[in-house]
Amino acid sequence: MSNPHPTYEALTAHYTRLHRYGHLQAMAWWDQACNMPPKGQEARAAALAEVAALIHRMRTDPQLPQQFERAAQEPLDDAQRANLREMQREWQSDNALPEALVQAKTLATSRCEHAWRTQRPANDWHGFLENFRPVLRIAREEAALLSAQNGLRPYDALMDRYEPGMTSETVERVFGDLRQWLPGLIARVVERQSRERPIEAQGPFPKAAQRALSLELMALLHFDFEAGRLDESAHPFSGGVPEDVRLTTRYREDDFVQSLMGTIHETGHARYEQNLPRELLGQPVALARSMAIHESQSLSFEMQLARSPGFVELIAPLLRKHFGAQPAFEPGNLHRLLTRVEPGFIRVDADEVTYPAHVILRFEIERALIEGDIEAEDIPALWDEKMQSLLGVDTRGNYRDGCMQDVHWPEALFGYFPCYTLGAMYAAQWFATLRRGTPDLDARIASGDLAPVFDWLRDNIWLQGSRWTTDELAQRASGEPLNPAHFKSHLESRYLG
Amino acid sequence: MSNPHPTYEALTAHYTRLHRYGHLQAMAWWDQACNMPPKGQEARAAALAEVAALIHRMRTDPQLPQQFERAAQEPLDDAQRANLREMQREWQSDNALPEALVQAKTLATSRCEHAWRTQRPANDWHGFLENFRPVLRIAREEAALLSAQNGLRPYDALMDRYEPGMTSETVERVFGDLRQWLPGLIARVVERQSRERPIEAQGPFPKAAQRALSLELMALLHFDFEAGRLDESAHPFSGGVPEDVRLTTRYREDDFVQSLMGTIHETGHARYEQNLPRELLGQPVALARSMAIHESQSLSFEMQLARSPGFVELIAPLLRKHFGAQPAFEPGNLHRLLTRVEPGFIRVDADEVTYPAHVILRFEIERALIEGDIEAEDIPALWDEKMQSLLGVDTRGNYRDGCMQDVHWPEALFGYFPCYTLGAMYAAQWFATLRRGTPDLDARIASGDLAPVFDWLRDNIWLQGSRWTTDELAQRASGEPLNPAHFKSHLESRYLG
């Protein structure tokens, strides 16, 4: 029998090879964060640059477009068509920019990010500005080029790299709604919680005990330790490859919540990766759908599941086991500790109620930056004004804990921030769907039966990979595209119910 | 100023890229041995095969020979000429075999090695033989092809891959001499030691204490922890890259000597790699000279240095510190424990006096196998006969601890075994030279001043990389090429002195 789709198969072989080179790259990154001694840095950077260049050459192979065209004429099934669509999407995004711009961007962002590491602690906004202006200029150029090719608005063209199909029109609508009710909700929650006085947990919490607890939690969350592992790094991440997921966390001996919740968050990312469609691994269609959908998994684990009263009941005995019994670990008290809401300066330290405010602010500023409505100099004033109106926090003159706190802008990751809050909304939408299908969900979680959660996520999200657009995925999983009403209900029910 | 050697520079760029891909390969190998969870195996194997194929394509690039020729016409200095020579040596060895033979070899050796893992514990010689016959057939074909190209005898052509320039004529002469006096020496040492009754060390020796001791020993041996690390693996090795050496060891709680001496041995390999000529790293001329020279470094550390009475005095307090005081750790007693000689079945467990007997036997058998003088079926009888005559040990019917004990033959690593004993001989030669230059060497070692040893090895061996042929290297370092008399003197002085 002759091969009915030789070109399509040649394409899949190409992407399989890319997947294999990507494997070595991912492991070298993980090793760099977890193991590498300092003098290995230079050789590692050179090796990573070499394989990145190889991967870039393969992904921008000029023969690909005609292969895509030929493959499109071949008799392909739906999954194969979806794979071809994803190949083409990748190719377009990889080929949009001239080599010179890619190089200029690498240079400008490395310089800016490197200097930022010392400028941030020094609160040196003016020093930062000098390196950040070229980064912004290049990002605008990038956005203009992408926009000219795909017809999206410049900011949307950048966001599309992380969240395909998402437009700022949608984000604006969704965030605009949020902006209306969020400050009021925060005020009510803060007022209500001011009457609670949860008992604080008493440290220190030894690192070894935190690690043992982390491992036990990952097992509880069905992390497959035969296809991944937990290590330590300065900045927690979920890396490696779907076949061998490398999770990291960090431990502070005065605060067990950071590693506890950090591990649960990364385990959500990890289980998505571990359960992508196995038979298609290596193909673009088997990749995670988008950054917001990825975040919807980590937040399904960290926010929807782990901060639910039933789950807190489940882990209270584990805390006593690893850290010794103390009054703070009484489930009701522990739940109050884990759901405290407090407006603050720092996004990554924010609770789930105030977190969206940090994202709205960044979205509004970065969209205006990219579309040329404001300049880099205008950031601090806008930052102060928005922090004041959204969270009632005064950041004047405090660049360090204000507009210099994130690595995203120095690295030109414009368009990424919205994914965090879109992810939180999708997570609420998944759990709303789950609760409709499993009315006794919370009782089952409290009893330790987490299978309904994982089965639903696996079937509806994980195993779908990039088979559908994000809208279709949401529609198939929950009967509707993104609907932020679920997020609002979730917050109201958890924090004001 | 125009570039006086553009082709030479293009060649060095090519080898620098190879070095970078090799970096990712080395780290993935290390990770596989130290970290990888079981389900990562398949994806890792595919990724490693992909980069191995890439490296092979680059190393056999058909444009290289004419570039070598053109570069040879350019005005090169001596180091550059040596680099060009090493490039050509690599190219010849990589291009000697047709692709089909390389593939057949990979298949046959993987099958044989995989089955051997269970056949060895099952003592299943006849099952092994079935898979080993094709391995041997391919190795003979390989030897014949290499021999036709470089004019060496078939066995020498295989050995040349590990030990360039070494011939079986030399090995025969050296081993023939050894064969004369070794059995007598062993008998005399055994007889003499039979009157000693060293006090045995009492375990258990906790893994954490052994690891702490290993790290302290590595520091004592000037291992650069900013350019490498120590981990654990089933089979200890020194891997990674010169810029970031990854050492491994294993711990048995009933026996501290294995990890102690294993770590010291691998640290010898590691320091060679860490001190290869830095400015040339990535170029063939900056690689370690040969397997025997590499082994001469690990054995300089493990045998010459670490089993010298002065060094034993130095480490006795460390053993007490990590394992608690016990009579066995009295330096004189400890030295007797560490220099016990006992003929046995297993090469890797052998002491430095009986070890060469294991190597002579393997050399004689494998050379006869490759040159067609015997067949695979003849191995057990020859093995028994030689073990009997060399070590007085009866291995009849015991294939597991006899001719099936090593992974080398299943993997077609014919020609490798002699390097172990050549390395021991070179190590003795280096220390004889060192003692001539530093008459108070042993006193300085006992006082903890190891700098004379490391300075000499660094200047004479490590920093030389592959600048010279092995004979020239030995000549420059010690005033003569390989001279086994130093090894004999060393054994006589240590064990009969």
Task: Give an account of the 3D structure.
Two copies of one chain form a homodimer. Chain A has 497 residues and is mainly α. Chain A has 20 helices and three strands. A three-stranded mixed sheet of chain A has the order 1-3-2. In chain A, α5 packs antiparallel against α6 and α8 packs parallel to α20. At the A-B interface, α1 and α2 of A face α1 and α2 of B.
- Kindly estimate the percentage of residues of chain A that lie in beta strands according to DSSP: under 5%
- Main-sheet strand order of chain A equals 1-3-2
Give the helices and strands of chain A as they follow along the chain: HHHHHHHHHEEEHHHHHHHHHHH
The averaged pLDDT of chain A comes out at 96
How far apart lie the N and C ends of chain A? 64 Å
Helix amount of chain A: 55-70%
Class from helix and strand fractions of chain A: mainly alpha
Question: What global shape of chain A is seen?
Answer: globular
Please give the number of β-strands of chain A: 3
The major β-sheet of chain A equals: 3 strands, mixed
The chain pair with the largest interface is: A-B, 34 and 34 residues
Query: Which runs of chain A of at least 5 residues are low in confidence (pLDDT < 50)?
Result: none
Q: How many alpha or pi helices of chain A?
A: 20
Q: Over all CA atoms, what is the radius of gyration of chain A?
A: 23 Å
Oligomeric state of the chains present here: homodimer
